[in-house]
TrEMBL record:
Native source species: Paenibacillus antarcticus
UniProt record similarity statement: Belongs to the major facilitator superfamily. EmrB family.
Keywords: Cell membrane, Membrane, Transmembrane, Transmembrane helix, Transport
CDD domains, per the entry: MFS_LmrB_MDR_like (cd17503)
Residue intervals passing through the bilayer: 12-32, 52-72, 79-98, 110-130, 142-162, 168-187, 199-218, 230-247, 267-292, 304-321, 328-349, 361-383, 395-417, 464-482
Membrane topology: Multi-pass membrane protein
All copies of domain Major facilitator superfamily (MFS) profile, residue ranges: 14-487
GO molecular function, one term: transmembrane transporter activity
Superkingdom assignment: Bacteria
Cited InterPro entries: EmrB-like, MFS, MFS_dom, MFS_trans_sf
GO cellular component, one term: plasma membrane
Main localisation: membrane
Protein name, entry field: MFS transporter
Length: 498
């Protein structure tokens, strides 16, 4: 009994340090959302280029995360976490002193290589520490940590951007990351039986080309256009590599990422809902700062404050939805939550140059309330349906699809915004010119051009939100098929080769 209590205490100690690391990584990610318009001006880059600071981060996550199932099985939590937080700290230090956009992007990608390991590692420790009947509450607490960072991130970022220069966003994170590394070095101790598994090099190469190619293709479409050879060739190469990667995993005795988790219907369903929800969620995260700051000229601080109540609601709701999930399951929560997401997203597709600040804040807050009812319950329900043997693969798969769908969704919606803005600008410009009877002066022409660009950008953002609402509607249809999961039996040894 005493030994069990000691083990439990040690597990909670490991969990606490891992959560601090995850919090720092998430805070760093959300800090840049509000700063994107400022960085566009600082480095003189377009919206499609600056969004690479977000999608590039997720691209590295998407490439790295598939290997985490292997890493979690082979190495101790201590070793993995020290590598992860170490890489994250190095990236943060470089980011704070980046003299150009390419170096800043490189720093973000180094940060991402560390953050990629942290999330699946934390989720795996959670699922091995808590029994199935308490996992909803445990994931709720994990959700609270996950949401608290996004809650303070935009507001903190807005205040910093308004009073200081953007490098301060990195300078406030780097000492915390270094402190967490030192704390983990001395306090994090866990033992693990030696596991004899080898990482398949070909799987790593196929995974990197597959996920990387698809993400790069979607992310490049905003600047280059869908008819660009670079865009469609990388998408085709990525898709082929991904098919080869998946096929190879079924043939390996010890797969890098085991796709057999999709034999369990509720896990497959939870993945499908998570993909569509992530794609829809990133619309507000990436489009709102552009609308608020570039079009409405609302200050970075006020932009951050607008998003604060929604993020706080998500944080407060996370442990509550965890307890509701433990009692009633994920279906009711998901249906109600997704209905709220669809309605609020549709209202966001009706933005104008005069939409009131309080209206925007209310819509954003209600939308985040809806998302809080879906994300953790659906994910937990899916993980509950697979045997313990597959938990590392399930958590890695969840993190992979979260990053990949988020990056694709974000890039796709920014691309829709950019292409539709160009279409609307042409139409509005032609309509305005047809009404003119005389040639306008330079000052009048410049003012007209600015008004046309602003109106066209709003229409482009509205179109992107409308697409996002349809994506969320797909998730709602899927939610009706959710059933309450019970942990599946351990599978018998599959016949494999290699």
């Amino acid at each position: 009994m005493k030994e069990q209590q000691t083990k439990s205490k040690a597990s909670y100690g490991v969990l606490a340090i891992l959560m601090i690391g995850a919090f720092v990584a998430l805070l760093s990610n959300t800090l840049l959302n509000i700063a994107l318009p400022s960085l566009m001006k600082e480095f003189d880059v377009s919206a499609s280029t600056v969004q690479w600071l977000m999608t590039g981060y997720m691209l590295v996550n998407g490439v790295m995360i598939p290997s985490t199932a292997f890493l979690i099985q082979k190495y101790t939590a201590r070793r993995l976490f020290l590598i992860a937080i170490g890489l994250f700290a190095i990236g943060t230090l470089i980011g704070g002193f980046a003299p150009s956009f390419p170096i800043l992007l490189t720093a973000r990608m180094i940060q991402a290589s560390g953050a990629a390991i942290m999330m699946p590692l934390l989720m795996n420790v959670l699922f091995t520490t808590f029994p199935p009947e308490k996992r909803g509450s445990a994931m709720g607490m994990f959700g609270l940590v996950m949401i608290f960072a996004p809650a303070i991130g935009p507001t903190l970022s807005g205040w910093i951007i308004q009073h200081y220069r953007w490098p301060v966003l990195f300078h406030i994170i780097s000492p915390i990351a270094i402190l967490v590394f030192i704390l983990a070095l001395f306090k994090l101790h866990d033992k693990k039986e030696k596991v004899e598994i080898k990482l398949d090099v070909l799987s790593i190469i196929l995974s990197a080309i597959g996920f990387g190619g698809i993400l790069y293709g979607f992310s490049s479409a905003g600047n280059k256009g869908w008819d660009s050879p670079v865009v469609y060739s990388t998408l085709i190469i990525g898709a082929i590599a991904l098919v080869l990667f998946i096929t190879r995993q079924f043939k390996l005795k010890q797969p890098m990422l085991d796709f057999r988790v999709y034999k369990y219907p509720m896990f497959a369903l939870s993945s499908a809902i998570s993909v569509t929800l992530n794609m829809a969620m990133f619309s507000a995260m990436m489009l709102m700062p552009i609308y608020l700051q570039s079009i409405r000229q609302i200050s970075p601080l006020d932009s951050g404050l607008l998003m604060l109540p929604g993020a706080l609601i998500m944080g407060v709701m996370s442990p509550i939805t965890g307890k509701i999930f433990d009692k009633f399951g994920a279906r009711v929560l998901s249906i109600l939550g997704l209905a709220i997401v669809i309605i609020t997203t549709y209202f966001f597709s009706e933005l104008t140059i005069t939409t009131e600040y309080m209206t925007l804040m209310t819509l954003y807050s209600v939308r985040m309330f809806g998302i809080s009812m879906v994300m953790m319950p659906v994910m937990t329900n899916g993980l509950n349906s697979i045997p313990a043997k597959y938990t590392p693969h399930g958590t890695a798969m969840n993190s992979t699809i979260s990053q990949v769908s988020g990056a694709i969704g974000g890039a796709l919606l920014v691309t829709i915004m950019s292409t539709r803005t160009a279409t609307h600008a042409k139409a509005i410009g032609e309509a305005a010119m047809s009404k003119l009877t005389t040639q306008p002066s330079e000052s009048v022409a410049a003012e007209m051009k600015q008004q046309i660009i602003s109106q066209a950008t709003i229409e482009g953002i509205n179109d992107a939100f409308l697409v996002s609402a349809f994506v969320a509607a797909v998730a709602l249809i899927l939610a009706f098929f959710i059933k309450r999961s019970r942990p599946a039996e351990q599978p018998k040894q599959e016949k494999v080769v290699g």
